[in-house]
TrEMBL record:
Pathway where it operates: Cofactor biosynthesis; tetrahydrofolate biosynthesis; 4-aminobenzoate from chorismate: step 2/2
Catalytic activity annotation: 4-amino-4-deoxychorismate = 4-aminobenzoate + pyruvate + H(+)
GO cellular component: cytosol
UniProt protein name: aminodeoxychorismate lyase
Organism: Candidatus Desulfosporosinus infrequens
Gene3D superfamilies named in the record: 3.30.470.10, D-amino Acid Aminotransferase, subunit A, domain 2 (3.20.10.10)
Length: 265
């Protein structure tokens, strides 16, 4: 177990951003939904030809880091698998980093603002299916959205269909039906996206994954974003178009079900 501050300069992570990572929410000294995170990390590692420790060893190292970094507040744990340096016989390494959860109570109460990004997400890229440490495109897009006064940016793909947020997956609701861009759009297979789709279907909420246009989004009744740290985050505005946050809505039903799932995970 190595903190993120320790990294060999010839590791491919340092040289090329070659690696995969997961961000876990830690509450009450326990990481949430570890199976989903390990599965996605393992899939990404296999895609890059890297060796990830088996789930038991991975979880053991995660738990050791958590125990060494106690906190009363929920926090974010980033677990990174480096690319190593095969020519130097340097193996892939698990790195750990702790940070605060960046979302505020006001954002959950009032909703966040989105900006439709002018540059497209390349849905043909092999990297869209994994959580790669080569994250510069996401960071620059997020900064561009912030400069427009938004909290998050939303990508369209090269064909003009909705894809995802720079740090999150996109959902919207119309007439009681839940919609989200399919993986064919170029969106990341998010852990909370997977959970929310399962929850919606268990609650018998009509649910569709497909390719959607910006017009579909703008005609919706509710919009929200998801990721491991934010859970379900309501959207109150897209560029200069407001979206009222309803107190009783499909999103609220999903939110309560998600909170119950977290409580019993």
């Amino acid at each position: 177990m190595i903190p993120c501050e320790t990294l060999f300069s010839h590791d491919r992570l340092a040289l090329f951003g070659f690696g995969v990572f997961e961000t876990l929410l830690v509450t009450d000294e326990a990481p949430l939904f570890v199976d989903l995170h390990w599965q996605r990390m393992n899939q990404g590692a296999n895609f890059l030809g890297l060796k990830l420790p088996d789930k038991n060893e991975w979880l053991k190292q995660v738990q050791e880091f958590i125990e060494q970094n106690p906190s009363k507040l929920p926090w974010a744990l980033r677990v990174t698998l480096s690319g190593g340096a095969p020519l130097s016989n340097l193996p892939s390494t698990l790195l750990f980093h702790k940070r605060l959860v960046p979302y505020t109570p006001a954002q959950y109460a009032l909703g966040i603002r989105l900006h439709i990004l002018p540059s497209p997400r390349n849905e043909q890229s092999p990297l869209v299916a994994i959580k790669s440490t080569n994250y510069l495109e996401n960071i620059l897009a997020k900064e561009a959205a912030n400069l427009q006064g938004a909290d998050e940016g939303v990508w369209l793909n090269t064909k003009g269909y909705l894809a995802e947020g720079t740090m999150s997956n996109l959902f919207f609701i119309k007439d009681g039906t839940l919609f989200t861009p399919s993986l064919a759009s170029g969106c990341l297979p998010g852990t909370r996206r997977q959970l929310l789709l399962g929850l919606a279907r268990s609650l018998q909420i009509p649910t569709y994954e497909d390719l959607y246009s910006i017009s579909d989004l703008l005609m919706s009744d509710e919009i929200f974003m998801t990721n491991a740290l934010m859970g379900i985050m309501p959207v109150r505005q897209i560029d200069d178009i407001p979206f009222p946050i309803a107190k009783e809505s499909v999103m609220r039903v999903l939110e309560l079900a998600y909170q119950d799932l977290v409580k019993h995970s």
